[in-house]
Amino acid sequence: MKSSERKQVLVFSMLIILLAQINLHIFASNFRVSMGVLLLPVLVFLHRRIPVLPIAVLAGLGVCLSRALIHSVMRSFELSAFADFYPELVFYVFYGLMFHFHCHRHDYRIPHRRCYAALFLMDYLANLLEMICRLQLKAFTFPLQADILLVAAVRTLILWTIISGLSQYKFLLFSTAHANRYQRLILLISKLNSEIIWMRKNSAMIEDAMAKSYRLYGQLQEQQAVPEVTQSALNVAKDIHEVKKEYVMILRGISEALELNLRDEVMSLSDIMKVLENAMNLLADQQGKQLEFLIDIQNNFKTDKHYFLLSVLRNLLTNAVEASRKDTISLGFIQTEAEGQYLFSVCDDGPGIPTEYLEQIFLPGFSTKINFDTGEINRGLGLNLVEDVIMNQLQGSISVQSRPGSTVFSIIIPREQLEVQQ
């Protein structure tokens, strides 16, 4: 037996012994009914493959000895007391033996209906054997048999209740973990979708650079420039063409992968905001800040442009969290409707945007984020991406008002661009 298994045997048997001390003294002399034996199926349900038989044997020995010692301390020390409690060991060994074969036969699976009939039968037979050890043939009287059957039924019902509760709890944990993974996946896809927009822009820039290189090659040929220089211009054009081919293949592959997730999916605005609220809480927590997030939604519409909305709002909210110098950050999101337009306001109580920067914040490459320790500068694509998505993908507009302690981004998007009727 491995050291980990020995540890399991010791710990789990001690738990059963301790639980067995809570018992009822009924029916016959020294016959006690406890819930200790129920812990064995529960442990199998929680841990699957555990050494059932060694645990049952050690638990039986512990229960027998502990009850004999308690009996001797409470009354007087008698060696006969150990003989009176040996049927406890018989009960646990026999129950453990039956349960051991049941586990091997059913691959240690507990939560299915038929297993409870088997567990009821095991409980009854183990109790019957214990009563035979105590009363011999008197154990077969009708009243005693009825009592043993009642004990087995009650314990099996309690066991079913415990395992059903644990099953629901495990399902809840799984559902919560699944929901968290799904939210992270949605955010990841929205980020990739944002990058695809920039990659498409860059693809046009690569095409333009290749055309300029080839024109330069033609001009150098016409001017009869140094052959090495002319050839270098041609080589640059060829290299850019090769880069372009690889770039386009990568872009196509990512785009096709994203299309599998973008097609035929819709999300409500409230669900979008739940994803963003969880993401912002996590970001604030990573920075050692507290987040107060007020969300006010007038129209909980459903949209198939949820990845675009996620990209836009995530950028604005992330900027607000990262720019705040306070320990407690206040964010606000308000959605209203007017004249066929959806209006979105994203506000924060941060330091604000300096007046001289307000006209530049949507320009590509502009950034005020710099790490003075490393010299690393943020690439400055966030707000330019936001403007691009709103104007070119959603046919909307964005504006900003800012002063120290208050920044508000106002977004207007036509209703028909967002809402999906279902």
How would you portray this structure in words?
By secondary structure, this protein is an alpha+beta fold. It has three domains: 3-140, Arp2/3 complex 21 kDa subunit ARPC3 (Orthogonal Bundle), CATH 1.10.1760; 191-262; 267-418, Heat Shock Protein 90, CATH 3.30.565. Helices cover 63% and strands 13% of the residues. The chain is built from twelve helices and nine strands. The strands form three sheets. The protein has a five-stranded mixed beta sheet. Strand 6 (328-338) and strand 7 form a beta hairpin. The longest helix has 81 residues, at 142-222. The chain is elongated and about 115 Å long.
Which terms summarize this structure?
Heat Shock Protein 90; 13% strand; 5-stranded mixed beta sheet; 422 residues; two-stranded antiparallel sheet; 9 strands; 63% helix; single chain; Arp2/3 complex 21 kDa subunit ARPC3; alpha+beta
Strand element count:
9
Name given to the CATH architecture of the largest domain? 2-Layer Sandwich
SSE pattern: HEEHHHHHHHEHEEHEEHEEH
Under CATH, the topology of the largest domain can be stated as: Heat Shock Protein 90
What Rg is obtained from the alpha carbons, in whole angstroms?
36 Å
CATH class of the largest domain, please?
Alpha Beta
Helix/strand-derived category reads: alpha+beta
